[in-house]
Amino acid sequence: MLIYSHTGMKLQTLCIAVLLLLATASTATAAIPSAGKEADNSPRVRSLKVERSENNLFVSMQFDLSGLKLKSDREITYIPVLSCEDSYVELPRVVAAGRNRYIQNLRQGKLPGDARLCRPGKVIDYSAVVPYEPWMESATLSLSEDECGCGFRPVSSRRDDLAVLDFTTKVFSPSYAFITPAAELVKTREARGSAYIDFPVNGTEIHPGYRRNPEELQKIRNTIDILRSDADTRIISVTIEGFASPEGPYANNERLAKGRTSAVADYVRGLYTFDPSIMKSTWVAEDWAGLRRYVETSDLAGKEDILSILDMDNLAPDDRERKLRSAYPEQYRFLLENVYPGLRHSDYAVEYVIRSYADADEIKAVMKSAPQKLSLHEMNIAAQSLEPGSDEYCEVFEVAVRMYPDDPVANLNAANIALGRNELERAAGYLSRAGNAPEAVYARGILAAKRGDYADAVRLFDDASKSGVSQAAEAAGQLRELGLIE
Asked: What does pTM read for this prediction?
């Protein structure tokens, strides 16, 4: 039975509906055949209420003994018991006695001082107060019943659970809506980089040992070699794209870019036995885009006017370069000496396919050594094999968003993990990249609620609920139960 605790009052109260005889009781029966005939003598418990203050626990109920019949020499002792694991306390007992046993109890006075002696056939109002202890927060209230056959030997015993207490502090605790990533039929990835190869002035012939060329060419080889040596990957294309800088005549720069790109591609082709269809090359005569990226992030004097010149697509490249040189000669010299050399580069892209993984244990092992090999769907397989909320479970989603920082699903699921840990700033960062799926709208509602913006939270929950997120209405209901919204 679900028990509600109402906080924010001097007393916390558990109000329990009428309880009939409970079928969930564990029963121990004495070896007396006739005991079974009277096994239904348990009282009907009504109007059960449990309240607590800072120091005391108050229990009240009614024992309906109106249907109870006892022989004159029989008695039944009812003992309410609070228990939780190894801790327990007995509340004052109620003793229902037949005529002779009732009289004997009155005369002998052997019952405990707080016991209630009564005759069957009545409704007994019951109340008790015990000092409150922390373990009672989630204790079980049970009713122990012992029937005595006047020879002080139990005829039968039973114990029924009446209620499970819940005095835990109520807080907003929503369910989270994760999205299962779609499976990738083919896992295609790309490794990219830039090599800055030195060529003789106006030359297109590559010299592998010239100046810094050994290190720059090694970058290309390392990328290819790592992928070729990995049994889980297969290279499907290698692309070389060469760039020249904008100074000088465009026609000459075009010749240089094309020739130097071809030289780098031939160098790579000569190192490996790739199928001819794998190697590809392209070139850009003058890297105006790279120049613009630098200027845009610089603090050059006249920066905005320089950008305007670079954006003059109606001018031929040579005219644009002359205009820049004449209008801003000082800035041009700086760019020529410090920026243009970096615009002469060969970009390389190695496209490859990674095999798929389906076994959760293998996926977890790969995640530790090479998480970049895994798809979001594969990481989700690993997550489903772990205990939700555990450190290992949460780590899967954090790895996923590190590997796929711009993916909306990865960001949404990582946001849910952060929200569950009350890491609200991290959650906000993830949600800024989580897109506008209904689940993301719902997660933003949770963030708003945790920040105390309940009006915005309800609006977002309503939008998410209309879009089919089942958890949204329950989350709004929690805010109402807690009195945070009307």
From this structure: 0.67
